[in-house]
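Dear H.,

Thanks for agreeing to be a second pair of eyes. The structure we're designing against is below in token form, covering all 483 positions.
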């Protein structure tokens, strides 16, 4: 790493790099090698309270800064991320197992939210409403919501932070970021860059802890926290929602998924194969918008399975720092076990392994394709979060929509068709917050990211993103009739 200052092993609270009051620490391990790469503080509730208190104390002065001043801070932070993208990507790769090319892409993607919201800070417009009487004037303004807590996942250790704190900081709200215990180093590195960008003390805070439930409870129950944004599993999201009820905290929850990828008979099969490949095996299948179920119409089923299997066999697994490698390890032993259980269950119920299906070494697992998958299989109901692609068969458009929607989740979905009428029908019928039409990669800072049903609520990114981090206030001016 060129910039050694980016490797931080302390939490960042009120402008100070600090350890836990208890002195406790935990280890960060490289999933590709099993090597311990750092030791960071294991904070408890009392430590997190200090971070919240610091953010609360910094709020009045920070919210009073002009939107242009806040925009300038964000822009400097964005420039620093881009300047240090190689070092940030290296940190991300060694702690998450994400291959280097994807890590470089995530740095740019994550930084794009900071760039976007640096611009949106100056566009948090209100409204003037035509009055209902001559002596009144009605105005709507938007104001900073207050202290924002962000709980982020290990699979996108940079972008999931920036997608939350970008709009919060743009709106005038200080933040407390709880980084994941598996991948805290990337989050600490960008906290250092935020410090270098000039954010005042207390405005940006980053806490590390191996006790996520204890820290999460404090962030939910502490009344000084006005907004909580969480990305993670649906069961944990429900717990956080319950814990936030006592203070009626505003929430944004981006939770689990069970993304369908539908291939109709009129699709461009080559394009569909490539779309499924990049969407399924991105970060080794460990993303919330990864394809979980491939649904193929019976007329092209055999052809798709053959083409897709060949494409998957061409994926290169190995050294995650090698820019030619496309598939890295799973994050931990629990994830590996889940992949093996899903494959075993599917095979017992009639699925055929057309490629892969075996552990390689350590936490590496062969990219796997399962033909003849059915709704009775565990993988049809649960998010596998690994390099396994089950392929289901359907007959009609109506059946495909029914199969796709037959889940409690509703985050991302995808389909391929060259019939423009079908594209509109299916896009409107799919019960998902995001739909990719003839496209397998849909994430961008320009569009609203989020789900429906048990995949959560709230949107991040786009022009809609700021609204979830601001309060809308109505002003009624009376006694202004003409003299």
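And this is the sequence the design step returned. I haven't edited it by hand at all.
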């Amino acid at each position: 790493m060129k910039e050694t200052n980016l490797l931080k092993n302390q939490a960042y609270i009120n402008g100070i790099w600090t350890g836990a009051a208890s002195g406790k620490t935990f280890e960060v391990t490289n999933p590709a090698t099993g090597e311990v790469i750092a030791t960071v503080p294991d904070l408890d509730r009392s430590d997190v309270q200090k971070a919240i208190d610091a953010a609360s104390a910094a709020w009045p002065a920070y919210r009073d800064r002009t939107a242009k001043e806040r925009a300038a801070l964000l822009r400097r932070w964005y420039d620093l991320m881009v300047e240090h993208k190689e070092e940030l990507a290296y940190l991300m790769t060694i702690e998450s197992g994400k291959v280097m090319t994807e890590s470089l892409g995530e740095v740019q993607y994550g930084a794009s939210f900071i760039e976007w919201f640096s611009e949106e800070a100056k566009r948090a417009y209100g409204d003037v409403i035509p009055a209902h009487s001559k002596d009144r004037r009605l105005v709507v303004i938007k104001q900073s919501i207050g202290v924002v807590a962000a709980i982020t996942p290990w699979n996108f250790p940079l972008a999931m932070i920036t997608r939350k704190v970008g709009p919060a900081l743009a709106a005038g709200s200080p933040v407390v970021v709880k980084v994941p215990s598996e991948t805290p180093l990337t989050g600490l590195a960008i906290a250092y860059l935020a410090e270098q960008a000039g954010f005042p003390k207390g405005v940006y805070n980053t806490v590390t802890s191996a006790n996520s439930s204890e820290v999460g409870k404090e962030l939910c129950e502490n009344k000084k926290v006005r907004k909580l944004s969480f990305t993670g599993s649906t069961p944990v999201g429900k717990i956080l929602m319950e814990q936030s009820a006592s203070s009626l905290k505003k929430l944004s929850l981006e939770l689990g998924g069970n993304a369908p990828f539908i291939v109709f008979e009129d699709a461009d099969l080559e394009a569909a194969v490539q779309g499924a490949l990049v969407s399924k095996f991105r970060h080794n299948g460990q993303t919330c918008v990864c394809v979980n179920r491939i649904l193929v119409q019976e007329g092209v089923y055999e052809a798709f399975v053959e083409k897709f299997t060949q494409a998957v066999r061409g994926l290169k697994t190995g050294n995650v720092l090698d820019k030619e490698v496309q598939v890295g390890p799973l994050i931990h032993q629990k994830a590996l076990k889940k992949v093996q259980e899903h494959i075993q269950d599917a095979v017992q119920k009639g699925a055929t392994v057309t490629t892969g299906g075996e552990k390689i070494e350590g936490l590496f697992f062969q990219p796997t394709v399962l033909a003849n998958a059915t709704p009775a299989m565990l993988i049809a109901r649960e998010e596998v979060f690994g390099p396994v692609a089950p392929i289901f068969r359907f007959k009609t458009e109506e059946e495909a929509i029914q199969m796709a929607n037959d889940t409690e989740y509703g985050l991302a979905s995808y389909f391929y068709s060259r019939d423009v009428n079908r594209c509109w029908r299916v896009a409107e019928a799919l019960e998902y917050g995001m739909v990719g039409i003839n496209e397998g990669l849909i994430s961008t800072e320009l569009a609203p990211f989020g789900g429906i049903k048990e995949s959560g609520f709230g949107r991040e990114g786009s022009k809609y993103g700021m609204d979830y981090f601001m309060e809308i206030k109505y002003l009624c001016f009376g006694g202004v009739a003409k003299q």
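Two observations from my side: The CA atoms of residues 9 and 40 lie 5 Å apart. The mean pLDDT is 97.

Warmly,
E.
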